[in-house]
Amino acid sequence: MNSKNKLIGIVGPCKSGKTTLSNGLSKLGFNAKGIAQEHSFSPQMWRKITNPDILIYLDVNYENTLKRSDLNWTPADLEEQIKRLLHAFAGADLYIETSDLTIPEVLSKAVTFLENFIS
Fold first, then answer.
1. I need a labelling partner for 36 at 20 to 30 A (CA). Which of 15, 81, 82, 105 fits?
2. CA-based diameter of the chain, in Å?
């Protein structure tokens, strides 16, 4: 089974780029789904929601969450989401820090990984 046939889950804190990456991968024919794990108190909710074959973890710093949206939150709120994502982070196949990357750069990193992923 090649990576385009595998279910790709994408997790990360708010405004890390889950929806954008999922949409970009889907347009390229990948079976990708953003998972809102950061809102769940259940550490394994990402598995219960999607149980992906491949898990991508996107990260973002506090300053960029504010630039990407009008979120009304504090650094402590982001830290809480990161705590909720620890299980997903530990199970991730790919980690991408998106703070200083463009949308095409994030997509390129994900596609390069997926194309080289050995099943």
1. 105
2. 43
Please name the residue ranges forming H helices in 56-97.
62-68, 75-84, 86-91
| Nearest of 61, 70, 57 to residue 18 by alpha carbon | 57
Eight-class DSSP state of 15: T
Tokens of 98: 């998106």
Which carries the bigger pLDDT value, residue 40 or residue 25?
A: 25
**In this structure, what are the phi and psi dihedrals at residue 59, rounded to the nearest 5 degrees?**
-125, 160
Of the pLDDT bands very low, low, confident and very high (cuts 50, 70, 90), residue 70 is: confident
How far apart CA 74 and CA 71 sit, in angstroms, is: 9
Pairing of strands 7-11, 54-59: parallel
8 A C-beta contact, residue 56 and residue 11: yes
User: Looking at residue 46, what DSSP letter applies?
Assistant: H
User: Does 25 have pLDDT greater than 60?
Assistant: yes
pTM: 0.91
